[in-house]
Amino acid sequence: MRYVALVAVAALLGVGGCATLTGGEENAPAPAFNAAACVQKDFVIYFDDGRAELTDEARRIIDLQARDIRGCTIDGVQIIGLSDQDEGNAESSRQLSVRRAEVLAEYLATRASWPRSRFELLATGARGAVTAEGLDVPVRNRARIIVAAHAP
Fold this sequence. Notes:
Radius of gyration: 20 Å
Oligomer: single chain
């Protein structure tokens, strides 16, 4: 009986160790400050079609990106909201792009504590979703985040 209990404890510790090593777990310890990580980051967050709410996967990605530069000085954050041309007319596509950028800004300011005064929000709507040749540009149900940071 005692052997089974020890094996169970060892297994739990092993699983916990794996979670910590990945760095992707919500409750994993924060990494030590790394001045070399204080650089420009450029990443994309995807939304469900026609929606502006953050998915669990989007939150996880944002949290990991913010965690990487925790302790850095945030110089500026540019958030570019996009939407697919088939998500409605031009005005509704623009409004969806704006809302996506706003949702991201709110989350980053609240969750990552990035200074809201350093944010620049842009929205393209469906503009650019079709090339001059009439070809659709794929998957515009996203927003792009570009953050400039430096070591304090």
